[in-house]
Amino acid sequence: MKPLSDDTLRHLREIVELPDTAGTRYDVVEPIARGGMGVVFRARDRELDREVALKVLSVRDTGPDVRARMLTEARILARLEHPGIVPVHDVGVLADGRTYYAMKLIRGSRLDDYARAHPNLGERLRVFDRVCEAVAFAHSEGIVHRDLKPENVMVGAYGEVLVLDWGVAKLLRGEASGVADAGQAPDSSPTGAAHGAGVFVVARSTTGSGAVIGTPGYMAPEQARGESAQADPRSDVYALGAMLGFLTRDAGDRAALRRLRAIIDRATAEDPGSRYPNASSLADDVARFATGEAVSAYRERWPERARRVAARHRIAIGLVSAYLLMRVLLLLANRF
Amino acid sequence: MDHSRESPAFPSTRLSVISLARSPDPVIRRRAHTALVSTYWKPVYRYIRLRWNATPDDAEDLTQEFFAGAIELPTFERYDAARGRFRTYLRTCIDGFVANAHKAAGRQKRGGGVEHVPLDFTTAEGEIRELPIPSSQDPETLFRDEWVRHLFELAVEDTRTQCAGDDKTVHFSLFERYDLAPRDETSRLSYDDLARELGIPVTQVTNYLALARRRFRAALLERVREATGSDDEFRAEVRDLLGGAFGERENGPR
Question: Per-residue DSSP letters for A140-176?
């Protein structure tokens, strides 16, 4: 046998990772992304004649813990029927023994790329609001994401916003329904850190205590301390606050920034009790900021309030001023 | 159709030969040593040739002496999985062994008094000449790359043997023609070309190739399982082994 060249080795590596879809309705087209615990492929669903995204457990991420987590992620996604959360079509085990699930194929950009291409603050806040909506829905279903960051949000070609990668999500209640905590799958042993898109992601363990789950820069202090089992909606609020900081780092005038900064500071407070209680209340404050209303996180002094109100009602103030000026001019004209 | 019995993706039943090398039973120990030599001799030879600039004769003697000494000393048994990967340990042992051999040069004719294991050094030497000079000079990377190459080669041979054993030679032949052929675009055959050549439908080419690839995947993972000392090391090596597959993409759902 001839020695295997580096090119052939590279090809064989890809073959090992390629999902064996024999016996399924899918044909793999190409890999499109690598995540914390799997590779996402563009695939064709032969029966429905449409393209889907197939997330397949990576060969390199072996072990029953990861398989269980993948299954849990699929079940959590299936439970979260919301326009801001990617719908799952199917879940199963491939001929090669790897777990997979099929989901809607999203064409668009990751939020970090999208933000670079869209400097407009209003548009960024619209996207952020959609993210908050999806996360708030998950919270209402008793699910905490635990790894929110711009890389886990996709903005579709028609402006739709989807929150992805629920692989380490935590279920606050409802274990009886068969959906376990994705970050604490049964029978797991401590595993090393996985990585994706150049960003450190997670290290997990069975016990939950001591496991660090999240991404530095976005994970809440309680998660960074290894208290991920205690994560609740306020931990996601922290990540959303960090995301808001990322989206608005180069935006707005100084007065506006002070109010925005106060929102971010409150969302990312060290003490969970000082943060917004959930994603909805954070979104409400951001919406108030966007429409020029007073925000709950910032106590204005009266000149600031006057400036904000003036800015918010500048058209009405302009019209009234013009009317008054005209009246004055008419009065003067009649007098002379 | 149940493929899972045929090709478990994550073989967990096959014991690591590194663990078996510590068995109190001398027969098991001997078999484990033979398996370790089979997995590592070629990377060791190539490494000594490339890293230590040894002549083919010297590299051959040093490889034979190293494995003979490893069995007597016993080097494999002293490996502690808690302190790192087996291949890193082995590479460090080789470096120490070759450095000492250089110091003691002239002490006796190299290879004297050593029980030689039949290894195909002529082929190994021919392969070194066929492949481009490795770009990395880092000893760890160099040894890792040669080990990976040899593991893949062993897995290909395992696949060939398995396919020949149950009359699936056409399946392997397709795998060889399509997946092992040089990757340059101009000389690559398409599924259509292969179907025409073999007089079978394209769908059959796809199915045959899928089976051969499934077997190759299982064979490779079994080889890695065999060559690693623990579950953690197995997982780390698989991660390392497949690190380059598909790269890290920036876009798309993660």
Answer: HTTEE-S---GGGEEEETTS-EEE---TT-EESS-GG
> Cβ of B253 and A151 within 8 Å?
no
Please, are residues A146 and A235 in contact by the beta-carbon 8 Å criterion?
yes
- The predicted model scores a pTM of 0.67
CB contact under 8 Å between A13 and B245, yes or no, is yes
Mark yes or no for CB contact A32/B251 under 8 Å.
yes
Q: How far apart are CA A10 and CA B97, in angstroms?
A: 32
Out of A45, A61, A65, A147, which one is annotated catalytic? A147
Tell me the pLDDT tens digit for each residue of A29-55.
888 887 667 889 999 999 999 999 999
User: CA A48: distance to chain centroid?
Assistant: 29
Strand order in the sheet with A108-110: A108-110, A153-156, A161-163
pLDDT digits (tens, 9 = 90+) for A75-120: 899 999 999 999 999 999 888 788 899 999 988 999 999 999 988 8
CA separation (Å) from B74 to B25, B33, B45, B66?
14, 10, 20, 11
Which of A6, A15, A86 faces B213 most closely, judged by CB atoms? Answer: A15
- Cα separation, B100 vs B104, whole angstroms: 6
Residues of A in contact with B241 (CB under 8 A): 13, 60
ipTM: 0.77
Q: Tell me the Ramachandran region of residue A168: left when phi exceeds 0, alpha when psi lies from -120 to 50, beta otherwise.
A: alpha
Among the partner-chain residues A4, A18, A62, the one whose CB lies closest to the CB of B235 is: A62
Residue whose tokens read 């004055």: A328
Residue of B nearest to A86 (CA): B253
Could B251 and A23 be called an inter-chain contact, meaning their C-beta atoms sit closer than 8 Å?
A: no
Answer whether B248's CB lies under 8 Å from A34's CB.
Answer: yes
Please name which of A38, A20, A189 lies closest in space to residue B234, comparing C-alpha atoms. Answer: A189
